[in-house]
Amino acid sequence: MFGYITVNSEGLSDQEKARYRTYYCGLCRALHRKYGTLSRLTLSNDMTFLGLTLSSLYEPAELQNAGICPVHPVRKQAYLKSAALDYAADMNILLSWYVNQDHLLDDHSANAGLMIRRLKPYYTELSQRYPDKCKQIEVCLDRIHVLEAQSSVQLDTLCHLSGRILGEVFRWKDDIWGDALRCIGEALGAFIYLVDAMDDFEKDQRRRHFNPLTELHSQPDYFETMRQSLTLIAAQAAEALESLPLEQDIGLIRNVIYSGIWVRYEQLLSASQKKEKKS
Fold this sequence. Notes:
Blueprint: H1 14-35, H2 45-58, E1 63-67, E2 77-81, H3 83-107, H4 110-129, H5 131-149, H6 155-170, H7 178-207, H8 214-217, H9 222-242, H10 250-258, H11 263-278
Antiparallel strand pairs: 1-2
Helix pairs in contact: 1-2, 1-3, 2-3, 3-4, 4-5, 5-6, 6-7, 7-9
C-alpha cells in the first residue's frame, strides 16, 4: 500500500526538490511529535503527497523551521508544520496499522507483529477520532481478504475496494472539495493495488501466494495491457485533481500524478525487458 505515490525527481528543479523535502521532513516531524520516534519508520511518500495536496487546497497556516534529526544529525533540514501534515501523520499511522496487520496475516511477519504492538495505542486513539473512516476501511479490507482467500479473479472489484480505502483517507473534511479528494484517493488506491500486484508477482509465485494478475501475466502483451488499465485509472485521478482550485506547489502535485506514480511501473517494465534480452 505504501511507496508508489511519489515524485519523479528527474522532472523536478532543485528548488522543487527542496520544497518537496520540506513536506517530507515535515511529515516525519509530525509523526515524531504525535506518535514517538518509532513512528518515523512508517514515513511514506504517499502521505507526503496527501499533506502536499491538502496544503495546496486548504492553505492552512504553515510554520517553516529547520533542525537536525537522527537521519540528518549534522546539517539542519528545513521542514513545515501545519494542520494538513498533522492529518497526514494520523492517516500514515492508521494505514501503517492496517498494512502491518496484512503482513502479519499473509507472512506471519515478526516485524509486523512488533509494529502492531507498538502502534496499537495510537490505533486505538485514531479509531475513536475517525470511527467512520476506520469502519469503512475495515469493511473494504475484510472483503479484500475474503476475495484473495478465494483466489478471486474479480480484479475490478479488488481495485475498487482498495480505492475506497484511500478515498476515505484523502477526504479530509466534509465540504465542497470532499468528493473530488475522495475521487483522487480512490483512483490512486486502485492504481496502487495493480502496481503492487505487479511488484509482488514473482515473490508471490515463489511463495505460492495468491496474486490477482496470475492469468494476465502469462499473456504476451501483459505490460501493455497493464499500461492501458493504469492509464485509465490515472486519468481519473488527474481529472479529479484538475477540478480543484490548486495553485500552491501545483508543479509538484502534477509531477506526482502525471509522472511519479509511473516510476515503479517503468522500473518493472525495464527489468522485464532486460530479462528477455538475456534469455
